[in-house]
Design goal:
8 strands, alpha+beta, 169 residues, single chain, Aminopeptidase, 32% helix, 8-stranded mixed β-sheet
Length: 169
């Protein structure tokens, strides 16, 4: 899978990307909002990359695709994973590259492709209430807010928002 936008390339995950994934996982936003996606060693990142590459060959995912700049720099990922209510999208752009519209650009390109791949008509986006940047990304991509309150997030009750794409109606 390769999706190209004006500034980005979304591509298949390869084993040699483990170092980039380790580096990108270390930033403070990743630690704060998705601590289960933080790696402390290259070996942990390599094991996760191997798992994700194998999962991508199956029908249940998760399906993670690195986001590269046009110059080839790995700056994050977009993904689709099975959740309680069906499929959910996720994304992360490394702190050094945030605030430039990369997450919105990547997610906009990814959404139609992943819905076709999974043969589904909608997908959720779940974000913590305190993660205003991710809320803006979902809203810019046309997600509709369908829930705001306390629900389970990584095994703990947390204030969050649930969005759905595409919007109903």
């Amino acid at each position: 899978m390769i999706i190209e936008t004006d500034r980005l390339v979304l591509t298949e995950l390869t084993a040699d990307m483990a170092g980039d994934i380790l580096r990108n996982s270390q930033d403070e936003d990743n630690r704060r909002f998705v601590p289960d996606e933080v790696f402390d060693t290259l070996e942990e990142a390599q094991e996760t990359v191997a798992f994700l590459m194998e999962a991508a060959r199956g029908s249940e995912g998760p399906y993670l695709y690195p986001v590269l700049t046009r110059t080839g720099e790995n700056i994050g990922y977009v993904q689709a994973c099975m959740a309680e209510n069906g499929w959910e999208v996720g994304y992360h752009i490394a702190k050094a590259h945030t605030g430039q519209g990369y997450a919105t650009e990547a997610l906009r390109a990814f959404l139609p492709w992943v819905l076709r791949k999974l043969d589904i008509t909608s997908v959720d986006g779940i974000v913590l209430e305190e993660n205003a940047a991710s809320q803006k990304v979902l809203e810019k991509c046309g997600f509709e807010l369908v829930f705001r309150g306390v629900a389970q997030y990584q095994g703990q009750p947390r204030p969050l928002r649930r969005y759905i794409w595409p919007q109903k109606g």
